[in-house]
Amino acid sequence: LSDVKYLKEEDANRKTFTVSSTLDFLADRSDDGAVVSCRVDHESLNSTPQIAMQVLEIHYTPLVKIISSNSWPEEGQSIILTCESKGKPVPEPVLWTKDGGELPDPERMVVNGRVLSISFLNKTDNGTYRCEAKNPIGRNSTEYVLIVHDVFNTLLPTTVIPSLTTATVTTTVALTTSTTTSATVINTRDPNALAGQTGPDHALIGGIVAVVVFVTLCSIILLGRYLARHKGTYLTNEAKGAEDAPDADTAIINAEGSQVNAEEKKEYFI
User: Fold this and answer.
1) Is residue 122 helix, strand or coil?
2) 231-267 pLDDT, tens digit each
3) What is the rounded distance in angstroms from the CA atom of residue 77 to the CA atom of residue 116?
4) What are the start-end ranges of the H helices in the chain?
5) What are the boundaries of each domain within the chain?
6) Distance between CA 157 and CA 72 in Å, rounded?
7) How far apart are CA 178 and CA 192, in angstroms?
8) What is the spatial distance between Cα 133 and Cα 88, in angstroms, rounded to a whole number?
9) Prior bond to 89 cis, omega within 30?
10) In this prediction, what percent of the chain has a pLDDT beyond 90?
11) pLDDT band at 175 (very low <50, low <70, confident <90, very high)
12) Residue 84 to residues 28, 63, 88, 129, 141: CA-CA distances in angstroms?
């Protein structure tokens, strides 16, 4: 509210008084339909004030907005552009233009009131579409930029490229997993793998050692038995070569007889 002015008048007899009040303010479209009231209080009104009400009717230029039925138009598809206009008084039928001129193809571009329908879209339909609305107060307009997308380019990022990317990623992961698994298996099974590789060598060496031990034991047993059977029945080389010994049998007998008396002088010949 910018200003409220009061005016007081009275007649010549000073019995009747008239008071006037003026309200001045700058209204906008949001004030349309608002209610303004004026209230008068006086002692003669018996405590019941007098109130006058007025509904504001604000006229304003149209507000314009374009709504598209397709956010990603492709070749061969259709699109509907709706021009919403709001103003007071009610705007006249809107005017559709393309790139500052008339619609180039009336057969495919059909205007029905505030609605523009375009069928069988192609690349020639790309451009800036303007919707203009007006009323006695003024006019207003808004624009919509139409880009018709190629069908192949649309399908490529949604179907082909994800498939190829998925395959590549899967292959890479598989190779990485295989490499990691192989390394893990080798590190884990390294002792067993070495044992498996040297197992035949150990068996061969063990067999050879067993044979050598067996032969050695057999030799020791045979040698022991041989020595036990011939214990104390040999003469030295000097006894065998003496000229006074009549023969070997006599020497052996004499040796056995002397063995009884002096065991410390017993000699063995192997």
Assistant:
1) coil
2) 655 544 444 554 444 454 444 445 455 544 444 444 4
3) 14
4) 151-155, 161-188, 190-229, 237-240, 248-261
5) 3-58, 61-149, 152-189, 232-265
6) 14
7) 21
8) 12
9) yes
10) 39
11) very low
12) 20, 8, 14, 14, 10
**Count of alpha carbons within 13 Å of 215, Cβ hemisphere only?**
6
Spatial contact of 126 and 146, defined as CB atoms under 8 Å apart: yes
- Phi, psi (degrees; rounded to nearest 5) at 100: 80, 5
Q: How far apart are CA 88 and CA 69, in angstroms?
A: 27
Model pLDDT, residue 254: 52
Provide the residue count of the chain: 270
Closest CA to 59 of 103, 84, 28: 28
Q: Which tokens is 180 given?
A: 């990691």
Fill in the DSSP letter of residue 263.
Answer: G
Neighbours of 158 (CB within 10 A): 9
Span 11-22, mean pLDDT? 73
Higher pLDDT, 170 or 226: 226
What distance lies between CA 265 and its chain's CA centroid?
Answer: 103
Separation between Cα atoms, residue 114 and residue 81, nearest integer Å: 8
Handedness of CA 174, 178, 179, 180 (dihedral sign): positive
Please, what CATH class does the domain formed by 61-149 belong to? mainly beta
Q: Which residues contact 104 (CB under 8 A, 6 or more apart)?
A: 98, 124
pTM of the model: 0.48
Question: What single letter denotes the amino acid at residue 193?
Answer: A
The tokens describing 53, both together, are 């009400």
Least confident of 4-18, 81-95, 162-176: 162-176
DSSP letters spanning 109-122: EEEETTEEEE-S--
Place of tokens 């040297």: 198
Q: What's the pLDDT at 14? A: 65
